Amino acid sequence: MSLLVRSIAELVTNDPSLGDGSALGLVHDAALVVEDGRVAWVGDASHAPATDRVIDAEDGTVIPGFVDSHTHLVFAGDRAGEFAARMAGEPYTGGGIRTTVAATRAASDGELRANVARLRDEALRQGTTTIEVKSGYGLSTADEVRSLRVAREITAETTFLGAHVVPAEFEGRTDDYVSLVCGEMMKSALPHARWVDVFCERGAFDGDQARAILLAGMGVGLLPRIHANQLTTGPGVQLAVELGAASADHCTHLSDADIDSLAGSTTVATLLPGAEFSTRSPYPDARRLLAAGATVALASDCNPGSSYTTSMPFCVAVAVREMCMSPAEALWAATAGGARALRRPDVGYLGVGAVADLSVLDAASFVHLAYRPGVPLVRTVLLNGEPQ
Fold first, then answer.
1. Model pTM above 0.90
2. Residue 9: which H helix or E strand, with range?
3. Where in the chain is the domain with CATH 3.20.20.140?
């Protein structure tokens, strides 16, 4: 069955060979054809071929589905009280993660599954079609494995984050916990994960411990990514580049050497503006990264403590307003940039052969994502070519 999306005022393809030749590959007065879940044709609406079905974009904008490459959806409970305390002046330290660990361990599989499904549906309604989900709120072998099993039910992009923080029962015995993560826990998590991650930060894991965890994961076939330089400058970004990690995430506090290293590597700098918004912390300097030639992605960091949002349009708007990104740069980072952070050449764009994941916006231009913050502009979402 073939499907025509017609009456597109502005089509964002993220394919520079199409349309205006820009990074966004803009095509105006466009149409798009889907066959077998893939984009089969893109071009001027007047030349569109006949198809079995039709969707009318009603002179709206069509964009690639958002690729959210950093989330923590498997958890129970919330930390609204912690958020209120931060808004009253208390600093964010990351210590509240243990609160969520306790709630997650106490939750049933059904409760975890229901919460993940709720958040996934919420993200999909806002145009997110590809999503990465981490474990990290179990921090025992059994709870990390069940977290990954639940995550795998909604996405193939699952990440083992047993090294989120050191759980309470290992207080003062960080090296023992690292041994558990690198051994029994990782072995048990392996069938359910594609990626391995570690929170390399003050109060979590230092550079040597993070290196040991990532190398152990790589040794059994997991691909590396890392939480790096969120709260302070540190070794995380340099370690990511050294190990060829797909992504260094947060990148809030960067030295000139960190920026040069990212610019000269294949490691994507994934920025998470929802975290800075929710913690009243300084935003990453996206302009410095882009000027140096680094590849930048945007992601939601959805979690109950420091960024409880599934909205990629919100992240785009904040990145434009607070991180000095242009609307075009922010949209590319939230789609094609996220795809690069997940090493997914099949999503994040709408050229011929791409997976037909897209959103129809009730707007004449993609610029409205930042221009009209907080407005639900997503009218229709196609996932693998099927309306949701």
1. yes
2. strand 2-11
3. 66-341
